[in-house]
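job 3f2a | input accepted
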Amino acid sequence: MLKFFSFFLLLTLLTACGGEKKSETGKKSTAVKKNNPNEIVWKKFTSSEGAFTVNSPGLTSEIKNEKSAGKNKIKKMVSTVFFSAGLNAFSIQYYSLSEEELKVPPLMFLGKVAMGITDKLKAKISHQKTIKNGTLRGISFHLKKHAEEKKLALFLGKKNIFIITTTIDQKDPSIVDKFIDSFRTGKDH
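job 3f2a | predicted structure (189 res):
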């Protein structure tokens, strides 16, 4: 499962948008385990620019890359935050949208992004639905390639798109929903 997730992140980071590394914040937080070694303590994480908060199930790192994105291949600063706890892996990728992108109806825009991700990974999409997280509208869907499965959630903030990628823990799939449900955008994002 980690092989597919690693491939997905690498492909998303390099293929979907380009790939020159600009900076790394090194911001980290770790999940502390209680008496039960399988019990994860979740901690609130805020991105370096205050773009979002999320309850983090483990170690985090945040990187910023300049990438080409969209149909016009405009260079954008894309931030990605990685979280991991044991076999669970999560990421949140976000970037500012152009004026042109902001004019597209939100669900139509998110649908196009979802199909672009699916096409690039040559994975099967399932369980697609519209979702709401606080005041944010978005979509969620599962991607399956061979036996490996991911759940993605895409949200539009005031000026950013947020792409949440999670592994689906077959032992406790509620971890995925807990992570996605805790996501909130910052005031101006």
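job 3f2a | The chain has a mean pLDDT of 77.
job 3f2a | closed
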